[in-house]
Amino acid sequence: xxxxxxxxMEQIPPIAIFLQESRPKFPTAFFEYLMPxxxxxxxxxxxxxxxxxxxxLLILLEQDxxxxxxxxxxxCPILLDLSAPDxxxxxxxxxxxxxxxxxxxxxxxxxxxxxLPRFCELCSDGKLFQVRKICAANFGDxxxxxxxxxxxxxxxxxxxxxxxxxxxxxxxxxxxxxxxVSYTTSPEVRRxxxxxxxxxxxxxxCRWVRQAAFQSLGPFISTFANPSSAGLYIREDGTLSIxxxxxxxxxxxxxxxxxxxxxxxxxxxx
Length: 270
Prior knowledge:
Strand order of the largest sheet: 1-2-3
Radius of gyration: 21 Å
Largest sheet: 3 strands, antiparallel
Number of strands: 3
CATH class of the largest domain: Mainly Alpha
CATH topology of the largest domain: Leucine-rich Repeat Variant
Number of helices: 15
Strand content: under 5%
Helix content: 55-70%
Number of domains: 2
Order of helices and strands: HHHHHHHHHHHHHHEEHE
Shape: elongated
Distance between the termini: 49 Å
């Protein structure tokens, strides 16, 4: 019964945590018995079971419970198969979504060598706009996961494609993550390539795209500032924050050191 398999997946993370804490007693139980079940359920015929498996996998990755060898030899190959050009549409959408979510939890080498080539292919998927939409919405996270060199060499050309997509929702998603993409690039690429691209979004024919671009204007401009003098930095959750200067802190030592946070989301950006 699918409900039984779904319930089983929901119990996998707490069992894995227990086994990790009791590792001397159960040194290989998770890798021998539980991890193969999680991997198998990523391709289950039932949608709810697959969703539960995906959520369990993300929790295991967040808790650093999955060995690097299992990620590279078991998890990534399954996701690459599910996101292949000839894969079922529903499986492909789910696979690209899980690839984007897990990218920030993996090593840069694993993401760049195993997942980045497929992500670049999916950005140009002409069959499913939903796939391109997921890629556009998570573009900044992928840039942050692979770093400046891979971003400028492989991702920026794909970002240009998505910013010119015929579907306005794609262009809107690009505008919303523009700050995160810009932050990953060099000042020269930011000035010579991304600035003209941003102008095209802020002049878009669709008002929803223009609105999203205007909301991202301030955060995008902030990426041109010198972090050492402006105190601007990007937090792990993708928001832009400002560190109070030492002069301000020293002037009031009893004042809590709270950061001022700006966000680049489509609802809260300024």
